[in-house]
Amino acid sequence: MRYDGDFLRYALSKLAAVAFMYALNRRLEQDPALSGVTAVAINPGNLTDSRAMQTNTPQSLVWAQRLIVRPLQPLLKLKDPSLRPSAAAAVDLVELATNRAHPNERGCFLYLEKTDSSPVSMDRDKQEKVWAKSLQWAGITNENTTLEL
């Protein structure tokens, strides 16, 4: 198996999601009926029980995750504070989704802290290109959405 390029594809998919979020928020803000709806992007941290480390992954990494990373998480967290279980990330996600944390805020979050995204994700032209391709791939048209496209 070859794994080169996997992390690049992963990073680009996250970049596309953030760019799409900005384009979506612009449209939500412009529509009086939808202006109370917000979209956010959240970086949940490095999840020690991530499915990404269990599927399509070399068995050596799967076992290292189970036998080393998870049991030693409290010690490893001293070196990398972003390590945490998915349950902790889920709590943050629920807090944002239910408006208990940062009511009506839009944008990017690292855990529950509002943060800036990368400069390339802020490029409005790129956001619009991601938006247009996403609509095309998903088959979204003016006839099947309430959003002003």
Would you kindly provide a written description of the structure presented here, covering whatever features stand out?
- With 149 residues, this protein is mostly helical.
- The chain folds into two domains: 6-45 and 84-143, no CATH class; 48-81, no CATH class.
- The protein is built from five helices and five strands, in the order αββααβαββα.
- It has helices at residues 6-30, 59-69, 73-79, 86-97, 124-138; strands at 40-43, 46-47, 83-84, 107-110, 113-115.
- It has a three-stranded mixed beta sheet, with helices on one face. A two-stranded parallel ribbon has the order 2-3.
- Helix 1 (6-30) crosses helix 5 (124-138).
- The radius of gyration is 18 Å and the shape is globular.
- It comes from Diplogelasinospora grovesii.
- This is Short-chain dehydrogenase.
Give average pLDDT, whole number.
88
Number of domains: 2
| Helical residue percent band | 40-55%
Poorly predicted residue ranges: none
Query: What structural category arises from helix and sheet content?
Result: mainly alpha
Strand order of the largest sheet: 1-4-5
Question: What value does the Rg take, in angstroms?
Answer: 18 Å
Strand runs, count: 5
| Oligomeric state of shown chains | single chain
Strand fraction equals 5-15%
- Total number of helices: 5
Largest sheet properties = 3 strands, mixed
Shape: globular
Cα separation of the termini: 42 Å
Q: Write the element-wise H/E pattern from the N-terminal end onward.
A: HEEHHEHEEH
Protein name: Short-chain dehydrogenase
InterPro entries: NAD(P)-bd_dom_sf
